[in-house]
Specification:
Structural class: mainly beta
Number of helices: 1
Largest sheet: 5 strands, antiparallel
Distance between the termini: 50 Å
Keywords: Lyase, Signal
CATH class: Mainly Beta
Organism: Marinobacter daqiaonensis
Shape: globular
GO molecular function, one term: lyase activity
InterPro entries: Vgb, WD40/YVTN_repeat-like_dom_sf
Protein name: Virginiamycin B lyase
Strand content: over 45%
Length: about 325
């Protein structure tokens, strides 16, 4: 009789080399910092280049601020009344904020507090909404009421604007892909949008007519994830093949998923803003399983935007309950 050991060894080797489907993401730990400037709607945190400060804006308080997560220290930079800051992104040059109500992008010097304004020209709404850097350090952004996607070449102080053909499309969330193309949600429609390499704005229709995509993120391989706020779906667009897949979120049609971002494994996380308290939920694309919800301790009110910091494996977001939150992955 032949020995069974070679067969067993071969079987064990095959099992060891067989990919194991990941389980649902583990529920993260949440820590909140109370913002002392009451009823100012702190939002859109962004981890600074040094990693020791987190920038955010007070949309209803006309300020940009930093939080030191180690000490809990806060520093506020006051803006002109009526600025209505909506979003902030930062690099070695300082913090760029979206002057949503005043038609400009501002750059704050963290040391002096001095502000340089890049003002949009023309008539009609110029409501800079959500911004993202490209690889050159220039800025792509959306205008919700202006119905445009724009690009600011910072060094040249040069704006280039791309009108959206669909009326009242409400360009909203925006990210920049690995090839430096911007991708945006058109919250007033069931479409996404991008500006191609030839400089043409192109719209991508989603399968359901009543879908209203609000936030999105993209992997380095061009897999784009989005949340459908009105229908309660998580969606996936392969920007290479055009394939679109969707999954109902755990909270159902009244979940109103809003803020979302990808972690360092390419897994989408989003906040259901329908439930009170708001709930942070992750999704594993391999197992197609959702994580257990992590409730925002203060309730959240509405969590509108979040980012992922790969250095600390943490998400950051602001809340309408006047807090800034770090969600740390296990």
């Amino acid at each position: 009789m032949k020995s069974l050991y070679p067969l067993l060894a071969a079987l064990l080797l095959a099992l060891a080399s067989t990919p194991v489907h990941a389980d649902a993401p583990a529920k993260p730990g949440l820590k909140e910092w109370k913002v002392p400037w009451e009823n100012t709607r702190p939002r859109d945190p962004f981890v600074g280049p040094a990693g020791n400060s987190v920038w955010f804006v007070g949309q209803a308080g006309d300020y940009v601020a930093t939080l030191n997560p180690e000490t809990g220290g806060l520093k506020r930079y006051r803006l002109d009344p009526g600025t209505g800051p909506h979003n902030v992104i930062a690099d070695e040059r300082g913090a760029f904020y979206a002057g949503n109500l005043d038609g400009h992008i501002g750059l704050i010097d963290p040391d002096s507090g001095n502000t340089r304004k890049f003002r949009l020209e023309g008539d009609g709404p110029r409501d800079v909404h959500t911004m993202a850097f490209d690889s050159n350090g220039d800025i792509w952004f959306t205008e919700q009421a202006g119905n445009r996607i724009g690009r600011l070449e910072v060094d040249e102080y040069d704006f280039r604007m791309y009108p959206v053909k669909s009326e009242s499309a409400r360009p909203y969330g925006l990210v920049v892909g690995p090839d430096d193309r911007p991708w945006a949600t058109l919250f007033g429609t069931n479409r996404l949008a991008t500006v191609d390499r030839e400089g043409q704005l192109r719209e991508i229709r989603l399968p359901r007519d009543d879908a209203r995509p609000r936030r999105l993120d993209i992997t380095d391989k061009g897999i784009l994830w989005y949340v459908d706020y009105s229908g309660g779906f998580l969606g996936r667009l392969d920007t290479n093949s055009g394939e679109i897949l969707e999954w109902p979120v755990p909270g159902g049609p009244n979940a109103y998923p809003y803020a979302m971002a990808l972690d360092d494994q390419g897994r989408p996380w989003f906040v259901e803003t329908g439930p009170s308290p708001n709930r942070l939920i992750g999704f594993d694309p391999e197992s197609e399983r959702f994580s257990d919800p992590a409730a925002v301790p203060s309730g959240g009110g509405t969590v509108r935007h979040m980012v992922f910091d790969p250095e600390t494996r943490s998400f950051w977001f602001g809340t309408d309950t006047n807090t800034v939150v770090r969600a740390s992955l296990q």
